[in-house]
UniProtKB/TrEMBL annotation:
It comes from Brevibacterium sandarakinum. Residues 868-1024 form the Helicase C-terminal domain. GO terms for molecular function: ATP binding; helicase activity; hydrolase activity. Transmembrane segments: none annotated. The keyword Metal-binding does not apply. It comes from the Bacteria. This is Superfamily II DNA or RNA helicase, SNF2 family.
Length: 1041
């Protein structure tokens, strides 16, 4: 595996570049030279050619060796924490020191950084690359830079830089450049300070003498400059009228250079210096003081006598704006102005002349907030008293300006979530029983409107109090409310004409979405409530309250109570024509709930119609290729009456043959890739239901797959996913817009209403509103949910089916052909040995082609089993679970460990039979710690007995040891005394391979397994040649795309 690092490389001309370099766990550990006084080549650094392949081809990247100071022993740098070696390095008793090493580095300018980071962190590499802490640090700087640009916290500047002369390397000339830089004040400055302090030491390995702040903030400026140039149009100035002069004014030339790729300003250095002098006062206006302390203004709520505040008191009370100072060197140190004025000299240890600093900071803040003058009239100012009206002005206007000028402003916690006067709708379906009513959005509901604050309707007395309030803030029902008499009057005028009546249920649901641009109401709708089943739907409790739907008698699974509620919820929404997102944790049975829905819907349809003439369209289910076999197997197991059509592979039916196949099918299963290719064929069908399994596949609305899938037509659309939001809210929009098109508005409106307020400003009120809007359509249960935990068994066993890749299938058939020829010509001990050898080789093929070939090739993207395993691991780790992964092959375990560490950027423990007793104890102890590795790979026999690994609650058997007792012993490492959580056990089974056939044999004789099955796999060697051929031959349905 490779560990990828980043280091800062100062550049006189361009600021701070990034140096990317990597270490390879497969290269020799030690340098051949022990001379510590000279710079030696890093022994396991990746050469630049391989480094270029890891990073992707970047036009601006340059190959350059760099001398890096790294923690080292005498002959070798220390391994970084991210490095995973199967055989740990010998421990040394000598103390490490910083030594210089020559390292191949790719130098990447800030303008190229985003594309390189996306390539590295986007999980597209075919090789195993694990980013080190320094790479994650650079990614965090990039994210912070994006947020600053989003909020326009940038300034244009003019700088004069040195540049090496191309004709004479000893000569440096000057160059004028237009650059954008960060304008950080207040909370942004605090974040910048935190980023400087948390810099990983390796990030400054190439420039140890350069101050940390210079490296961090220099790179941040470079990132911001590149982002702004990418977003701005080519020219900010309007076209000139008339002829363009041969020489432009210096300011205009500089302005033109603020956009585009070329930052050079074609003016003389003297003109540039004059321009800089002219810009300087503007840049410094409101900029944060570099002094030792920052002013903090804290607004406190009024504290009336008796502890309560009547509505009539609100205009008369006094608010208090406290003055404080926060140390810039120690952000946790804050003192109030009273202590400053009472200081006996004890504050001098961290702040020189604190009184003068306080007065200077207050004077600077007064330029932004003139009302501070009243507080400065005292000889020793400590606070400013404000009326309610003045406090509202401070909250609504002044606080923002002060924060932008670098003053820290602390506001009451309720500000920003202050409820406003709006409209509340109460609806009652005219048909109270959804089982008998005209189900659908065309049903009617009676309604009445009322003025409300948040969810609470206002009484006549409260409305009057608001109308006649003398201040813009009024306290009502224990909370402060912003008063806007004009809003109240508009609301009352609306009520005169719309107080009550009837409307379609579909309109009630639209109103519940609360998009003011889509509604013909004068005020924002703050609450939509309803009675009966409609109320249960809107408040997200329908799954708990609606009447339970039982699957048909021929459905061969007993649903757990929470699964029965999930079935009833899906069925309920389906008959309303509403899409749904079933977002249960992995392992809670989304598959069986969907199959129960299909069986129930089909049984109902057949009961209501003549089966001979029924022409209802089937359901279309899309899933990743690795899950097709799982759906087939589960459908055959639980719902054998469902007629399944797998629309997949080169032999799939087309045209009339497809139509004929649909007429004989209840459930059509296909892959996202197939559906995307055949969208013209699939979109012409009016599917009764379209279901997306692993629906996060369509999280990117701009991908070609998502665009194709959105063209499918279905009476109901369902998304199955354990992670409806992985990184960004835009992913939620994409999934929700598929199941209920238009529900969250256009992407642009959704970004404006929710994404920016929540992701950029952490707006809790908007987050609450989004949850309220989406909760009727999302059902999510977790394994720790108290409402379902008692429904779960102590141990859940899951058979995980997968298909081979084409490469695996080809190797599998070659092995069978070769080995069966040899087996037919052998007998006795030789035959038994050949059978066991064939079993071993086929298991290796099922694991991964590289496992059989031992060619040292990368193992990503070539194995159906590994692909499905990675999907499971991704969801498992996202849920905070820890996993034991058993394999009977130590060489496969050694291949998996670095791959998993790189793939999921996490530590991976490994235990094999060769592990020493002392090392074994250390590994187990480390894994059992709360912050231990998330993944533990064990060879089946080494980890099968004598271990207590209750930190894990997930067990995966990657390859099968065809003896149930051995597998159960391994499983019991997690499922044993001391385990406080439910344990999920997964056993991988390749469709159409020996894994599937041997599993079927064991299932048939489960209760006699201990008698029928001997130790290991020797019982298989006694099978006849014909039976063995049937067992090993690959079936046609074994191969995926």
């Amino acid at each position: 595996m490779y560990v990828l690092h980043a280091c800062a490389l100062p550049d006189a001309q361009y600021g701070i570049d990034i140096g990317m370099w990597a270490e390879d766990s497969a290269l020799p550990v030690s340098s051949p030279s022990a001379a510590v006084r000279q710079v030696r080549d890093h022994p396991f650094a990746v050469p630049t050619d391989s480094l270029a392949d890891i990073l992707g081809r970047s036009e601006g990247a340059r190959r350059t060796p760099q001398t890096l100071l790294l923690p080292s022993l005498q002959r070798s740098p220390l391994d970084p924490p991210e490095m995973v070696r199967i055989q740990p390095r010998r421990r040394s008793s000598s103390a490490p020191s910083l030594l210089p090493w020559s390292v191949p580095v790719m130098r990447i300018p800030a303008s190229e950084l985003s594309s390189v980071l996306d390539s590295i962190l986007g999980d597209q590499s075919e090789v195993d690359v694990r980013p080190a802490a320094s790479v994650h640090y650079v990614a965090e700087l990039r994210r912070h830079g994006e947020m600053l640009v989003d909020r326009s916290r940038v300034l244009p500047t003019c700088v004069i830089v040195g540049r090496d002369d191309e004709d004479d390397n000893d000569t440096t000339t000057t160059e004028v450049q237009a650059r954008w830089r960060v304008f950080a004040t207040g909370a942004d400055a605090v974040t910048n300070h935190g980023l400087v302090q948390t810099m990983p030491p390796s990030f400054r390995a190439a420039a140890p003498e350069t101050p940390q702040a210079e490296l961090t903030l220099g790179l941040l400026d470079g990132v911001v400059d590149a982002l702004v140039r990418r977003r701005l149009p080519a020219n900010l100035l309007a076209p000139r009228r008339g002829r363009r002069p041969s020489t432009l004014p210096a300011a205009e030339t500089w302005f033109e250079s603020l956009t585009g790729d070329d930052a050079r300003v074609d003016i003389a250095p003297a003109a540039a210096e004059e321009l800089i002098r002219e810009l300087d006062p503007w840049v410094r206006e409101g900029a944060e003081s570099p002094g030792p302390a920052q002013l903090v203004l804290r607004l406190r709520d009024p504290e009336p006598e008796g502890g309560t505040l009547t509505e009539s008191d609100a205009a008369e009370v006094r608010w208090h704006l406290d003055f404080l100072l926060r140390s810039r060197s120690d952000q946790s140190l804050v003192i109030d102005a009273f202590r400053v004025w009472d200081d006996d000299g004890s504050l001098a240890r961290w702040l020189d002349k604190p009184r003068e600093v306080l007065l200077a900071e207050l004077a600077r803040a007064q330029r932004v907030y003139p009302d501070l003058e009243a507080g400065l009239r005292r000889a020793e100012p400590t606070e400013l008293e404000l009326s309610t009206s003045a406090a509202f002005d401070f909250l609504n206007t002044a606080a923002t300006g002060l924060a932008e000028a670098g003053v820290e402003v602390q506001l009451p916690s309720w500000w920003g979530t202050t409820p406003k006067v709006g409209l509340k709708l109460h609806a009652t379906p005219t048909d109270g029983d959804p089982q008998e009513a005209k189900i659908g959005r065309d049903g009617l509901a009676s309604f009445d409107w009322a003025l409300a604050v948040g969810d609470h309707g206002l009484s006549d007395d409260e409305i009057a109090a608001l109308i006649f309030a003398k201040a813009p803030l009024v306290q009502m029902r224990g909370q402060w409310i912003v008063v806007d008499q004009e809003r109240i009057r508009r609301g009352l005028d609306f009520l005169k004409n719309h107080e009550e009546g009837q409307m379609p249920i579909s309109e009630v649901m639209t109103l519940a979405l609360g998009d003011p641009e889509e509604l013909e109401t004068p005020l924002e709708i703050t609450s939509v409530e309803a009675d009966g089943w409609l109320g249960d739907l809107l408040d997200g409790t329908a799954a708990q309250t609606i009447e339970t739907v039982d699957p048909p008698e021929d459905f061969r699974a007993t649903l757990r109570p929470y699964q029965a509620r999930g079935l009833s919820w899906l069925d309920f929404l389906g008959r309303l024509g509403i899409g749904a997102v079933l977002a249960d944790d992995m392992g809670l049975g989304k598959t069986v709930q969907l199959l129960a829905l299909e069986a129930t819907a089909r049984a109902r349809a057949y009961a209501a119609a003549d089966p001979d003439t029924m022409t209802s369209a089937p359901t279309l289910l899309l899933c990743p290729m690795s899950l097709i076999g799982n759906w087939e197997a589960e459908a055959a197991r639980f719902a054998p009456s469902l007629r399944i059509l797998v629309y997949y592979g080169s032999a799939r039916p087309r045209g009339d043959a497809f139509d004929a196949a649909l007429a004989e099918s209840d459930l059509v299963i296909t892959t996202y890739a197939t559906a995307s290719r055949d969208i013209a064929e699939l979109e012409r069908i009016g599917w009764v239901r379209v279901v997306l399994d692993e629906a996060q596949v369509i999280k990117n609305r701009l991908s070609q797959t998502t665009k194709a899938i959105r063209r499918l037509n279905g009476g109901q659309k369902i998304a199955l996913t354990g992670t409806p939001v992985e990184n960004r809210l835009s992913e939620l929009w994409s999934i929700m817009d598929f199941v209920n098109p238009g529900m969250l508005g256009t992407p642009e409106k959704f970004r404006e209403r929710f994404v920016r307020p929540i992701e950029v400003r952490a707006d809790e009120e908007r987050a609450h509103r989004l949850r309220r809007i989406t909760r009727p359509y999302i059902l999510r249960r977790t394994k720790t949910d108290p409402r379902i935990i008692d429904d779960l068994p102590e141990k859940i066993e899951i058979k995980q089916h997968y298909r081979l890749t084409v490469e695996q299938a080809s190797l599998y058939q070659s092995v069978v052909a070769e080995m069966m020829g040899r087996i037919e010509e052998s007998s006795g001990i030789e035959r038994r040995g050949l059978v066991l050898a064939a079993m071993t080789k086929l298991k290796q093929v099922c694991n991964h082609p590289a496992h059989l070939l031992h060619d040292g090739s990368a193992i990503g993207q070539r194995s159906g089993k590994l692909e499905r395993f990675e999907e499971i691991m991704s969801e498992t780790l996202a849920e905070g679970d820890r996993v034991l992964c058993f394999t009977q092959f130590t060489d496969f375990g050694e291949m998996l460990v670095p791959h998993l560490a790189a793939k999921f950027d996490t530590d991976v423990a490994y235990l094999a039979g060769s592990t020493s007793k002392q090392r074994r104890t250390e590994i187990v102890k480390d894994f059992q710690e709360p912050d231990g590795p998330k993944i533990f790979v064990l060879s089946l026999k080494a980890g099968g007995t004598g271990l207590n690994l209750t930190a894990a609650n997930q067990v995966v058997h990657l390859d099968r040891w065809w003896n149930p007792a051995v597998e159960n012993q391994a499983t019991d490492r997690a499922f044993r005394i001391g385990q406080k959580r439910r344990v999920q056990v997964r056993k991988f089974i390749g469709i159409g391979t020996l894994e599937e056939r041997i599993d079927a044999i064991l299932e048939e004789k489960k209760e006699l397994a201990d008698m029928v099955v001997g130790e290991g796999e020797s019982w298989l060697t006694e099978m006849s040649t014909d039976s063995l051929r049937d067992l090993l031959t690959l079936s046609k349905d074994a191969v995926g795309e």
